[in-house]
Amino acid sequence: MPASFEEKSVWIQFVGTGLALGGYFLVAGSMLARGVTAMPAYAALFIVATVLLVVLLVAGHVVAAIASRPEGRDERDRLIAWRAEAGSGWLLAVGVLAGVTAMVFAIETVFIAHLLLLSLFASEMLGFALRLRFYRKGV
Amino acid sequence: MRGPAKAPSASPKAQSKPAPMVIENRIRVLRFHHHEMTQQALAERVGVSRQTINAIEGGKYSPSLEVAFLIARAFGVPLEEVFQAATKARK
Question: Closest Cα partner for B41 from B31, B56, B30?
Fold first, then answer.
């Protein structure tokens, strides 16, 4: 079955977020390992990753819209999105709780910021993966 | 003192649990009888995507009551002629 525009959109978000923010975490991880703790160094890198993400998403959606006419979300798309969110939100909650715990133990801000960002990234990626699974296997 | 009497087969809790149900449909047959109506044409009448009609037809998605009634209306038949509930055999 050919994918709908909504499913293609999820694929674009999955690949785009994986490439842009995955790349960010690879570089930021190596910087953290080398002991770089100044936040401005990461801010510049994050801006580059965000711009890359926006470019990938816009380009991907333009190509997808040319390939298949967007039909708008229907009840199945909404149900899939809700179920995926219900199955992925816990990762963000775990990250927030870990971040609060890290604050209690006065861990450096740069680590806490990356912990929160990583949990948001992981939660989003799991959400996209679940949506793609529901589109293929059914809900 | 005697303990509680044991049920001969399944426990009362298991007996009260409804049997799992699958929703079957005759959309493919009805499309055939309506001049080979395409999934796209049905989707446009119902107001959902073609992929959603495909998923309903393939049993991968159970539609809302509203969409189920709209599908039945598109074929001009009662709801139960499109969708039937079948009981899944317990293992």
Answer: B31
